[in-house]
Records
---
Amino acid sequence: MDPKELAQQVIDGNRRALARAITLVESARADHREQAIILMDALKASNRVALRVGLSGTPGVGKSTFIETFGMMLIREGLKVAVLAVDPSSSRSGGSILGDKTRMELLSREPHAFIRPSPSQLELGGVARRTREAVSLCEAAGYDIILIETVGVGQSETVVSQMSDLFLLLLAPAGGDELQGVKRGIMEIADMILVNKADGDLKAAANRTCADYAGALRLIRKRSYDPEGYPKAMTVSALQDNGLTEAWTDMQTLIDWRRAHGHFDARRARQAEYWFAQEIRFGLLGQLDREPLKSMIAQLAGQVASGDITPSHAAHDVLTALREG
Amino acid sequence: MDPKELAQQVIDGNRRALARAITLVESARADHREQAIILMDALKASNRVALRVGLSGTPGVGKSTFIETFGMMLIREGLKVAVLAVDPSSSRSGGSILGDKTRMELLSREPHAFIRPSPSQLELGGVARRTREAVSLCEAAGYDIILIETVGVGQSETVVSQMSDLFLLLLAPAGGDELQGVKRGIMEIADMILVNKADGDLKAAANRTCADYAGALRLIRKRSYDPEGYPKAMTVSALQDNGLTEAWTDMQTLIDWRRAHGHFDARRARQAEYWFAQEIRFGLLGQLDREPLKSMIAQLAGQVASGDITPSHAAHDVLTALREG
């Protein structure tokens, strides 16, 4: 199908077209990439701006339950919700988080919800591009809130935060000494920390953990793009649907303030520049993984290791071969 | 001069030729780079293998005094010593560590010593390549020990450890709670930790600091390329020339063991492969800093930020321009 026509169908709210469009942006084929670029260009006509919410949490913190309960709450408010995932492990395992829609049984049956698992068999760079473009597709399709889920592994949090207007860190109740388990860099990109499972036996531990993180957040340098009181930590229970309305209110307060002060648009502009630079790097370095260069590099690496050729000379040969096609 | 002839003069021990050769590898000009590659190829004829010792320490730990005293001790043992530096800050400040040879007054007057400051006005990638090639030049010129100094900032320790057979971390006496100031990654690449200034009022503090680091080193996973008892921490006083002979004996023990077990050569082979990969990356990404691409990218970045073009589309245009020359 003509990519411009596909874009129009996406904008018109056709779910099958949206799914097809995401499949197109996932493809690594050169002709598909050309079509994807035309498709993405044509989305501008929609002029829609969704709220993009990144959500990170290690396995076991109750991410699926949170998305299910939070998503259903948003839908009851009359909003349309899309759920995407960045799963850095899926390229290795072939599996994917969100692969099993039964993890979000109610949400997956909602006509106003759209759930798409993380693509498998892609490198993180590929997952990042596909998810970023899928976010734009869902936005153009009229979804109001786009949840972008990731497990807290390696660089995936950075990837997700760079495509989110708001970044949530979901944590489980724990002893205070486990605070160190969350890397400082992650604390710095979090806009809100939600300590989940604040119910039953874990309620007291959740409150303690929340207080610990609230303290840790106060130690972080005040950020110019936050109103007073942010970033903040709070407890929720996704299982019992407690605290999610409050969390949503606080998210809206934060985002309204950022919109009013120009930080919302500024962040998106910065993110676009970031992805532009990343796409160039990704495209350049990607050349090294393709034949015949890949074999040439492997062969030269052996000669470099054995001392038959200097690293500079071998690199010079590779770059010359690249330049001369 | 013909680069092959220059190489021969370097191998013959001509100091002026060595200095000229280093100037040549520092140059970013394309024709100089071609000559540098021929020069580096021609060094193989020397068949010399020096001991490359990386040395990291923050300002104030007494690095210059250590190099001065340690270097003079090596020279008394009949060895020839070269001192190079990787200074990531020099590209910004225009200044350079080792810029003032009076910092090593005795050593700089020794005929068996060669001291070369860090080049200024180069990016870390450029400093890395130049220093790596300068190390090979000094090695071919017959220097037995090559000390590669760096301040402990950012990535410079990784750069230096990737061109060293042995990596020393020089520390000052401190309270035990400052142990956290040394990043875990640095602890993991250190072969020996030397706590300097173990003299006068600071002697007791130096012993405490040394014990703290010895304890920390024991927590690091045993490395297959180390004999029993390594990595190790010890105290020295560069000012009073105390402990340096012992440190040198321990360095030799470590290196002899690594040579005997194949780890010395294996490490150099791995390093060569690392630099090969780095040179390719450096060369590829370096294209983006050159005109007319640089201006094209800057202009597109503005359009990307304002939303006039998608990041993928803009990157596609850059990569196409690059491919089509």
Note: The first strand of chain B starts at residue 51 and ends at 56.
---
Amino acid sequence: MTYLIGIDGGGTSCRAAVADRDGRILGRAKSGAANILSDPDTALQNIIEGARAAFVEAGLDPAGITKCFAVLGLAGHNVGDAVHYVRRSLPFAEAHIESDGLIALQGALGDKDGAVAILGTGTIYIERQGQNVRYIGGWGFTIGDLGSGARIGHALLQETLLVHDGIHAPSPLTSSVLAEFHNDPREIVEFARLAKPGDFGRFAPRVFEHAERGDVIATLLLATAVWSIDEVLDRLVAQGTQKVCLLGGLAPLYLRWIAKRHQSRLTEPEADALTGAVALALARYGVDRSSAHER
Amino acid sequence: MTYLIGIDGGGTSCRAAVADRDGRILGRAKSGAANILSDPDTALQNIIEGARAAFVEAGLDPAGITKCFAVLGLAGHNVGDAVHYVRRSLPFAEAHIESDGLIALQGALGDKDGAVAILGTGTIYIERQGQNVRYIGGWGFTIGDLGSGARIGHALLQETLLVHDGIHAPSPLTSSVLAEFHNDPREIVEFARLAKPGDFGRFAPRVFEHAERGDVIATLLLATAVWSIDEVLDRLVAQGTQKVCLLGGLAPLYLRWIAKRHQSRLTEPEADALTGAVALALARYGVDRSSAHER
């Protein structure tokens, strides 16, 4: 008997699930990072290790993974070389690689139409209407990812320098940042010079916390970030989107700040991205493909 | 007889002047780049070559530079190691290294109080009241330099992606950018990933041009940039500054956009940065130091 495998591979960890040909999940497991862009060989190793561990968890012989059909959701799926290399090297009978965003959308919405706003260190929006899937944003930190944790943290450090220079009035938020850098703007500049998006992003929760307390600068920074999200939601709604799930690490923090006009469209995700990967595997490789598509 | 030397060393070229002990400029010359941070040895070589060429231009024996007193205005003057290395290696009898900004201020304002706003690829403000000199901004592209050409160009590329994604309405400005990148947002992202501040800055004049014609996006981007400058001028005025010179490549473009409340304080520079370096050399090493200070 062959099984379905779902993989949710991210930069921090890789999660795997094994399901029967009716899509019932039998076992789940977690392994190390699966970033196919920065380290494809480690990613491959962790994908395989995760799949084997899910088999063990389900009480199955892990050697069976070679007979499986798999759907993998991977960041960087749109970068051709990495994907070809990984797909060629996977041990599964058949494998289909999708974006990490698409399996998240599938998990969150099931087979319904709608959109997900993935709000984490970066931001990306995915909209599905029937068979049409459309990506918005997701262009990365340098000139994109508005509303992301990285951009919020970046804006906070910039604002802190303006306060230091006496251009803007201080607030408890900027004072806490200045204190952290020993009141030395050069330390902030040096930090920012070397910072990766995740390093900026670690300041984002602090902005939300201070905004809750009415900190003027936190409120302004957050309003700018929220505006950039509301603008995309406006666009999605204009295109016919009725349901939006907020996903990603900042989703619970953003929830109450999203504009009133969008609040009625926000829905809780039905399931997680790993479940979405299994659902896509079921649709593609399930025992009765046509019925799976119609669910 | 010994002479005074002024040096204006920048990332593109190095300018040098020789003057007599009364500060009368006898010869000027130009040599290659003098970036003491990225390439101190080439900088040293171009500083010496410039000084010798100024002597030749003045009809003097270039061997005489070793008896001179020099003031050098150099970008990166606040980075200790580079400055110590360059100062130790200079062939002059005495040498004093200042910021490129301070010699620009000295040239622009002479010995009067006031401030300069240096608006180019980056932005920095320098204010002088009597013997007190204060720097504002100049923290570099990553989290500073608001209103700079680099930040304007960066904002334009970001806006162009928002237009591509259908979040904002297009304008002739963003259409011209999209066309330049073959209507492919990935080309813009890739450009931005590799771009140095100067690469972003090359888009800034286009924003000014389109704003002159009433382009909506250009007007908005420019308003944001101008606001960041007006805010600093507000701060300078609150501290007592009465005169402001706009310097740098974007100064003539910005002039008409600066807020009305500041227009009466804007003045033309008296002289250039090289003249400022000579003036500082005169004040420091001139034939009658006390009278030079009192001028």
Note: Chain A has two domains: 4-110+270-294, 149-263.
